[in-house]
Amino acid sequence: MHYKYCPHCGQLLIKKFQDGRNRMVCDQCGYVHYQNPLPAAAVVVMRDQQVLLVKRKFAPHAGEWSLPAGFVEHNETPEEAAVRETAEETGLTVRIKQLLDVAGTCEDHKSNIVLVVYKAEQTGGTLQAGDDAEEAGFFPVDDLPGKIAFTSHKRVLEKYINRY
Ligand SMILES: [Zn+2]
User: Fold this and answer.
1) Of 24, 44, 124, 143, which one has the fewest beta carbons inside 10 Å?
2) Is 134 a known active-site residue?
3) Region 54-68: what's the mean pLDDT?
4) How much is the pTM?
């Protein structure tokens, strides 16, 4: 996210070297536009050596596959976000079992992301694609359905899937 004007007082922001790097700052009120990564959460849910994946409906990477995942909302823990996103995208209710990985990525030109990845197990629900997923299903780990959307998700699939 890039601001041209101060979100507090409307003054034009200027580039200034502050706290170790160039930042957009407001000379009027002192506002500093810090650009921090956004936290996101993803889950690895396995069933008979198959991994739960969703086909993305929207950009970025529409038509490609990813783990159920999404941004952590305000007033939500990463665990809650992971459970919520899984329900929204796949119809499945899951319980978080274990932290698998924390990956920092900045492949998206607009923002960088800190992805928290959990192992989870299904406790209920019925498999049905929803929200921003076009398809959802379990796929053999050695025969994935198509291109995996994000480097961080690819890394998780390569690093962890065969162990679970
Ligand atoms: Zn200002």
Assistant:
1) 143
2) no
3) 92
4) 0.87
